[in-house]
Amino acid sequence: MASGKILVAQGGGPTAVINQSLVGVVLEARRHKSVSLVYGARHGVRGIINEDFVDLTQETSHNLELVAGTPASALGSTRDKPDLAYCQQIFKVLQAHEIEHFFYIGGNDSSDTVRIVSQEAAKVGYPLRCIHIPKTIDNDLVGNDHTPGFPSAARFVAQAFAGANLDNAALPGVYVGVVMGRHAGFLTAAAALGKKFPDDGPHLIYLPERVFELEQFLVDVKTMYERHGRCVIAVSEGIHDASGEAIAAQLAKDLERDAHGNVQLSGTGALADLLCEEIKSKLKIKRVRGDTFGYLQRSFVGCVSDVDQREAREVGEKAVQYAIWGDRDGSVAIKRNGYYSADYELLPLEAVAGKTRVMEDEFISPCGTDITDAFRLYLRPLLGSGMPDAYRLRPNPVAKRLHQTE
Amino acid sequence: MASGKILVAQGGGPTAVINQSLVGVVLEARRHKSVSLVYGARHGVRGIINEDFVDLTQETSHNLELVAGTPASALGSTRDKPDLAYCQQIFKVLQAHEIEHFFYIGGNDSSDTVRIVSQEAAKVGYPLRCIHIPKTIDNDLVGNDHTPGFPSAARFVAQAFAGANLDNAALPGVYVGVVMGRHAGFLTAAAALGKKFPDDGPHLIYLPERVFELEQFLVDVKTMYERHGRCVIAVSEGIHDASGEAIAAQLAKDLERDAHGNVQLSGTGALADLLCEEIKSKLKIKRVRGDTFGYLQRSFVGCVSDVDQREAREVGEKAVQYAIWGDRDGSVAIKRNGYYSADYELLPLEAVAGKTRVMEDEFISPCGTDITDAFRLYLRPLLGSGMPDAYRLRPNPVAKRLHQTE
Questions:
Q1: pLDDT tens, B146-158?
Q2: Where is the active site (chains A, B) (predicted)?
Q3: Per-residue pLDDT tens over the stretch B87-102
């Protein structure tokens, strides 16, 4: 007889809407007669290893809805990237608790974990459905039109640059904003959606999809500064030289690496400070300011896309439907349908696991420092309703009285 | 015969609501029969010197309302701090254009400019009404319950720490957020309003009103980290040692100073990076992240307090009423009346000009690293309606099966 037990967990960096997916799983699962218990693992796969489970069957629907609207992983997360032995241990715990459906909400590393656990179950003929639920502000999952969490982070970045542009117009100078995104520039590119008038910033956008050359960067900044009397720049933390070495990593004295072998790029202002220093010393521009958006862009409460919320909820719901009504494991993916609607499908885990999507060429201008209208059209509907708008006074100059010869 | 001309300008750092004050002046002035023309100076006092005026009489009321809702100084701002000769030049231009009322929206440096210009006019018996309209995210104007711009920036800081706390709970470690505020800690203290549950961060708050000692800081962080398994810290950019030297300034290789002789504290991530480095190396904690909120906290579009908007509008309106119906110059100030309502009064310019308010002792806990309920009660109504709230899953632990002896 089937146990009717399901387990859900959250991995990787939190997002503004990852709890929507969690609650989508829980509420959808609870309405299925075949489901008896819904467990959540605390702090991702680490919580599975430690058998640190909470019984979400006992949670009220009302509180679940409130948690859904709260950013960051309500179950806790982890940066652990399980190897084969770790995945075998995960499977052992799932077996011990007679788990029949395993849902893991996370990015491409998490999908790889789901893939290995799924294989372990298949090896011994244990009937386990394993579903990966997409989540990443980097938008770097292949096979997805976009990933839940990205639209809200993109909205933060767009609103931040809209404001930085206004501030920079009021007190002119150079402004450098460093945005998250190790390999994919989607989030940095979102800065362009903060632009309204033709002379608005960001005037330059540097993406990890293109090689970064410091000399050319300085030429670009000089050109824009002379044109506009100011310059707003969006820079991805993942910019790198021709050899592929990250500009940030070249500067870091102590290279902190996580379990995935990744160098820490966020949580330090070094890249923004270096670029500002270069502009000040080489271009002799006095007012140069740099901000590193850091954790604000993924955790700020009160900046969320309603489209993102809805889709994050639905990928959770669809995951349960695929697991219970379907006969195969997989990764839920968002498909775009019209302008604008989203549909969902289940991709094979192998199609998504451990792979990285980067920005398509059609989204990047030939000059390499701007984005195309195709990208604007792609991103705009994802940002959701109620985007703030910026207005200007119209020019109505008054004739001078003292400086009439000027 | 009177010219009926008024001039308005914006000085210092932009805020989320400074355009409300501008529009308050313009719309209120336009309804008075004695007013014929409303000029705006572009980029503050520098625009007056350059006679760079726009005629706001020609602007539509509709567009003015839209500009009011847009953050940052719509007329442009300046960091110029006029000396006597500069103020005499300002007065010369005002005379040439037959300006009868001069309104300057800004902080304590701007109020000092208004004071000197007012004196110059009085010296020669020129009938000029000079009114200072308060604005500063630092909340450091004396004689004011609080200043327009502070509540919206405080809301950003509270929402940022609410989110940083959730992110830090999901992926535990140490998080350091550096907040603006050279001498006054009000904005940093606002971090505490992001706290809901007793174990929420910020767990430690460092204000410029107290001496910062690195050794004690490390002891504090260690204590909180051991208690909560994580630690969220709010730090003012203005923290200083016993001699009064800013911790940030001790680190800066190149001390950039503005026209006011102030060292640049914002637009660099150095302070956050130093503190993180100390925590990593001395306390051997691996996951330590630092964010410098930088310009986001004053320019981000879409995070504004409706109370702040309303009051910023009203100080502009009241300024015009004081100028036209009153017989003296002064600085408009906000008075608190009940829980919660605001009234306005006109203070003598000498009472405000060039002075700096810091946090009152009753707002700071005896331990020096937390704020009091008096501060919570003071700030809460200013943050406005619709503050995001954070919810948690309730603990319903599941019995272990493999680790039963644990």
A1: 999 999 999 999 9
A2: 138 (proton acceptor)
A3: 999 999 999 999 999 9
Residues of B catalogued as catalytic: 138
Q: Poorest-confidence range of A156-170, A249-263, A350-364, B286-300? A: A249-263
Bridge partners of B106, per DSSP, are B134
Structure token pair of residue B284: 């051997």
Lowest mean pLDDT among A27-36, A46-55, A237-246, B269-278: B269-278
CA count, 13 A, side-chain hemisphere, B364? 21
CA B65 to chain centre: 22
Q: Are A321 and A35 in contact (CB under 8 A)?
A: no
* CA atoms of A28 and A13, how far apart (whole Å): 24
Collect all residues with Cβ–Cβ distance below 8 Å to B239 and sequence separation of at least 6: B206, B207, B208, B212, B246, B247, B248, B271
Does the CA dihedral A356-A361-A363-A369 come out positive or negative? positive
pLDDT at A17 over 50: yes
B136 touches chain A (CB under 8 A): no
Q: What is the ipTM of this complex?
A: 0.94
Greater confidence (A255 vs B396) lies with B396
Residues A212 and A292 reside in one and the same domain: yes
User: CATH number of the domain that B102 lies in?
Assistant: 3.40.50.450
In this structure, which amino acid lies at residue B150?
Answer: F
Neighbour-count burial for A168-181, b at 16+ CB within 10 Å, e otherwise: bbbbbbbbbbbbbb
Of A161, A162, A231, A157, the C-alpha closest to A391 is A162
Report how far residue A95's alpha carbon sits from residue A87's, in angstroms, rounded to the nearest whole number: 12
Which CATH number belongs to the domain containing residue B288 in this structure?
Answer: 3.40.50.460
Kindly state whether residues B317 and B280 are assigned to the same domain: no
Given an 8 Å threshold on Cβ–Cβ distance, is B72 in contact with A169? yes
Taking residues B339-343, report their average pLDDT.
Answer: 96
Q: What type of residue is A68? A: A
In this predicted structure, the answer to whether residue A67 has a pLDDT above a threshold of 60 is yes
Average pLDDT in chain A: 94
Task: Please tell me whether A182 is known to bind a ligand.
Answer: yes
Residue A259 predicted with pLDDT over 70: no
B162 and B219 part of one domain = yes
pLDDT at A403 over 90: no
CB A220 within 8 A of CB A227: no
CA–CA separation, A347 vs A364, rounded Å?
27
Establish if A173 belongs to a structural domain. yes
Q: Which region, left, alpha or beta, applies to residue A231 given φ > 0 means left and ψ of -120 to 50 means alpha?
A: beta
Structural domain includes residue B171: yes
Name the residue of chain A whose CA is nearest to B53's CA.
A398
Question: Each residue of B347-369: pLDDT tens digit?
Answer: 999 999 989 999 999 999 999 99
Q: Which residues, 6 or more positions from B165, have their beta carbon under 8 angstroms from its beta carbon?
A: B194, B195, B200, B201, B202, B232, B390
The answer to whether A138 is a known catalytic residue is yes
State the CB neighbour count (10 A cutoff) for residue A396: 14
Q: Hey, is the C-beta of A205 within 8 angstroms of any chain B C-beta?
A: no
Whether B396 maps to a domain, the answer reads: no
Same domain, A348 and A365: no
Chain B residues whose beta carbon lies within 8 Å of the beta carbon of residue A295: 163-164, 167, 175, 289, 291
CA distance B318 to chain A (A): 22
Please check whether residues A189 and A334 belong to one and the same domain.
no
Mark whether A283 and A170 lie in a shared domain. Answer: yes
Burial of B281 (0-12, 13-18, 19+ CB in 10 A): exposed
Residues 6+ apart with CB under 8 A from B253: none
Residue B1: pLDDT over 60: no
Mean pLDDT of chain B: 94
Domain that holds residue B195: 150-302+360-383
What percent of chain A is predicted at pLDDT more than 70? Answer: 95
Asked whether B71 and B16 are in contact (CB, 8 A), the reply is yes
